[in-house]
Specification:
The chain is mostly beta strands. It is built from one helix and ten strands, in the order ββββββββαββ. Helices cover about 5% and strands about 40% of the residues. It starts with a strand and ends with a strand.
Length: about 120
């Protein structure tokens, strides 16, 4: 199975957005999501909901050099308990950005994931 593109919902300054449903993940290495490259000023947040019947993890994989000089720190991983929702982010691009500017996300169990973007210049 290949990664599915997960398009972030932009959080609107001085406004609001409808809460997106999210997209179900396919668990396991090499599956999950890709978030396309964003502007350097944009912060990405993930909302992961787990209803798999057991605890699981969501990971933003370590990036590749030369764009991610801190990639040696490894993936950013958060545990999501069953029947709960975890917010993860924002992420340090020097750790997780891939050479094409994208992010790779994997889950250890099936989760429903939504991505959000926030332009840091407007905060």
């Amino acid at each position: 199975m290949a990664r599915v593109t997960l398009t972030p919902t932009a959080l609107v300054p001085n406004g609001g957005v409808a809460d997106p449903t999210g997209t179900a993940s396919v668990a396991g290495a090499g599956n999950g999501f890709t978030i396309p490259a964003q502007s350097p000023n944009v912060n990405i947040w993930l909302r992961a909901a787990n209803a798999s019947g057991g605890s699981g993890t969501i990971s933003v994989l370590a990036g590749s050099q030369p764009l991610a000089p801190s990639s040696g720190q490894g993936a950013v991983t958060a545990t999501v308990a069953n029947s709960s929702t975890q917010w993860v982010g924002p992420f340090d691009s020097s750790r997780v950005i891939q050479n094409d500017g994208s992010l790779f996300i994997e889950t250890s169990v099936v989760m429903t994931v939504a991505a959000f973007s926030l332009d840091g210049r407007r905060v």
